[in-house]
Each structure stands twice: as C-alpha cells, then as structure tokens.
## 1
Amino acid sequence: MLCRSRDLGARLRRSAGAGPAFGAIWPLRHPRGRLPRLACARPLACPTVRLAKFLAHAGVASRRAAEEVVRAGRVTVGGAVVTDPARDVDEHSGVAVDGRALAGPEHRVVVALHKPPGVVSTARDTHGRPTVVDLVDLPGTRLYPVGRLDADTTGLLLLTNDGELAERLLHPRHQVTRTYRAHVGGGRPGPRSLRALREGVELEDGRTAPAGVREVRPGLLELTLREGRKRQVRRMCAAVGHPVQALARTRFGPLELRGLASGTWRVLSPAEVERLRQG
Ligand code: URA
C-alpha cells in the first residue's frame, strides 16, 4: 500500500483511533483508541528486560538513544525517576517517559519513505522544521528514522519502532550497503577521481572504506558505500574536486526506492523486513 503524506501537521492533529486501514493488518489501536495490551496472560510469566531495551521495544527510540533518555531523567518506573538504563523491568513495572505511560511493546513496523528535500531526518526538530516522522501518518506508532539523510538529500529512508533492527542496520559491523546517485559539478570526473572514490578518500575523520563507484552518465555518479558517516558522499566527492549538486539515496541494503514517489511511504511486508534483517 502506498501512502501519500498529508499536510505536515496532519499526523499531529489526528485524534486517537482515527487511523487508516492499517488496523486491519497491524493491530495498532484498540477500537476505543488505546494501544492494544500485548501483555502476558499471566503477570508472573512476563520476562524482565533492561529498561533501555524495554523502551526500544516500546518504540521510544533505538536502544542507544533510549539509554540517553533514561540518563536524562525522563523515565519513571512505578512513579520514581530511574536513571539506570540497566534496571530490570517488565510490563507491570509502570514505565513512563515524560510522564506518559508505556503500554508495553508496540507491534513492530518498518516504513520506507521517499524523503523529499527540505525535511529533516529527526523525530523532533528544535527549530520547528518539518521532519520525516511528520510525513508518516501512522497513528499509535512512535517511529524514528534509521540513520539520517541531510535535509537536502532525497530518497529512501527507513523509519521504524524496532530499536533492535535499527541498531543492526546502522552498526558498522554489519556493513549494510547504501547506494546514492550524486549529480556532481567540477566537470566530468576522470579515471583518477573515480579510482580515488573507489579505493578510499582521506577525510578529516579518516580514510573512507572501499566503495562501489560507477559513472551513470557524465556528471552523474552512483556510489555504493558500506559505511554511513555524516555527509560522507558530499565530503568524498568534494575531496576529489567534484562537489555534489544533488544527492538521492536509491537503495538501503536489499531495499530499493523504485516505485515510491517523492513524499510517499509504505509499510514493509514481513518478508521485506526479514530480508533487511538478514542483510
Ligand atoms: N552522504 C551525504 O553526504 N549525505 C547524505 O544525506 C547521505 C550520505
């Protein structure tokens, strides 16, 4: 199912329980507008997990970001502030973030968004700019982006409430590939520039890993990276004298952007999520 983003405030204005037809597939909301309780049948059988993991499963943030949320004193357990992310909790511990109680694990969802330009890849922007999360109108689900694209970069961005999957996809150990198309200036890149991009470019945060690079046509390069440093493609191309004029991500791991128009999104199928998980 393809979904076109509504106006950017729509997600915030939607009232509880007014969700789209996803409820038929994903049990996101109870008819009375509350999150379905995915509780264990017998309280004593509920497994305890570390607080940060509990928050990640509840869709608050990735595990690492959840640790920061805890350390910042934003989490209470049974009404008392807890700053230790390793504290053991379960669904009956009364965990709340910023005063809002968590109902337990959310149904896990992964969304593919075709990010348009001018939208920031954070869940909340302190300057009030539109965010990628505003574009995905999926009530009852606290999504956050899997990594970042620059505000002016377009293309494939995943959002999820599955902290473990996000961490797996982003961890350098797993070397998930990302493919970009870059329109570059500075004339047509010659063989030396292309070789340098392929073999590694010296940047201020170290040499880049070997990358796949091909010239699609003069001035348009396709780069496939196995690492995800900040503004990496722009910095690599600038370092070889060909500054990026426009940048789009066309692929993330096994997933392609194809078929998604700018500003639209769709929920990935379980098979697609499994392929992502397998890398
Ligand atoms: N590399 C960049 O330079 N920018 C992006 O947004 C993504 C990769």
Note: The first helix runs from residue 10 to 13.
## 2
Amino acid sequence: MNDKKKLIAANWKMNGDLAANEALLHAILAGIGDAACDLALAVPAPYLAQVQALTAGTVLALAAQDVSQHEAGAYTGEVSAAMLRDFGVRYTLVGHSERRQYHGETDQVVAQKAQRALAAGLTPIVCVGETLQEREAGQTEAVVRRQLAAVIQRNGHCISEVALAYEPVWAIGTGHTASPAQAQAVHAVLRAQLRAASAQAGRIRLLYGGSLNAANAAPLLAQPDIDGGLVGGASLKAPDFLAIIAAAH
Ligand code: PEP
C-alpha cells in the first residue's frame, strides 16, 4: 500500500512563449479542482517570473529544469540554486537524460547539482534511467544503481529530502512507455538502494517518467513504488495533463 501523497511534475522542456504559457496555465488552473497530489511545473528559466506570478496562491509549485553545480561566480550562462529560490522555485530537475546526453553531465556533476539544490532548500528531482542499448544488454539495474549511488555518496545525510525520477531514456518522447511491471521492478531496486542508505527511504518519492499520458498513467501510478510522474510532452496539453493529475490519487 502506497500512502504517500503523489507528485506530478511537468517538464515543459524548451517549449512555450509568454502567450502560450498563459493560455496553458489558465486551462490547467480552470480544470484542476481539488488535486489529490502535489504538483510542480518545470518551466524554462526565462519564464520563471511569469509562471511565478500566474501560479501564486495556487496548488501549482514552481520548478526549474536544471541548476548549476556551482554556488556563484564566473560561470556564464549558469543559474544558481539561490537565484531559483529568489523566484519561489521549490523543485529542480537534476540530471535529466537530455542534460546527461547533450551537455555531458556526469554522475558526479549530477550529484553536485543535487547538493547545491538541497543546500538552497530546493527539492532536487534526480533523474536516472538506462538507454535502450543498456536495457538490451541487461544493464538496467547496474546503470540506475550507479547513477543513484553517486547522489547518495555526496548527499547521504539528507538523501530523504530528494525526489527521484526513473526515466528510461528509450521511453522519453518516443511514445514507448515502460510497462507498469517494468517500471515497478526498477523502482523496487531504487527503493532498496535508498533503504540501505537511509531509514527515511520510505518517504522518498519515486516518480516514473517516459511517454506518460492520459491513457497509461493510471496503471503506472498504481504500482506500489511509483509515487508520481514526470511528464514531458503530455504536460503541454491541458486536457492530457489534467487527466494524468486525475489518475494520481
Ligand atoms: C521528460 O522529458 O522528462 C519526459 C518524461 O518526456 P515525455 O513525457 O515526453 O516522454
């Protein structure tokens, strides 16, 4: 029995503009009612102020898509955890596979980013997941355990403050979703690793991400170790995002 409040987090990726953001937020807020889960929107950094203003006093919490591993200084283009705090950000994605793949983020960099987020009072949503090649080579468990181990090693004392997202790379943006059994199996591995690191592991929220949509959300979110979802494409369409939220109770 999973009695934690679920977390549904949207990842807008590099999409949106001022007008489209406003229309999307209005549609979501109009349809949301009494959501039974916690909700967060990871929006592009330039729109944090806009989304902060439009979601103030609502159930929608603000999230960033990335955070610098540095505290401050000569790091052109970077955004620090403290800057995110200034805009009311509560969560930040860390180590999304697109950051690992296109920006060379290593397990160690991801662990440092999680540390910066935690130090600033943000909840890092640490993303882990295997590629198709790794899954086919039977390496899924080893890959996600390695990715999580780096985060635990650096943040062991406060690991219960993170959220984790299992996002198989082969499922992100592809329309190929992990089956509920496949996802649960990996979540159980991650939970066991967290339990070995912390007595509080039971309260860490483990999200599933990867082509989550209105049709497949309910059985995935019903799994015992799946405590929410990280939603990319479907979070850009209010009816789809609202249906996923409705499935999270
Ligand atoms: C993501 O970007 O984190 C994601 C899960 O994307 P999608 O839902 O589009 O697969």
Note: The CA atoms of residues 187 and 225 lie 6 Å apart.
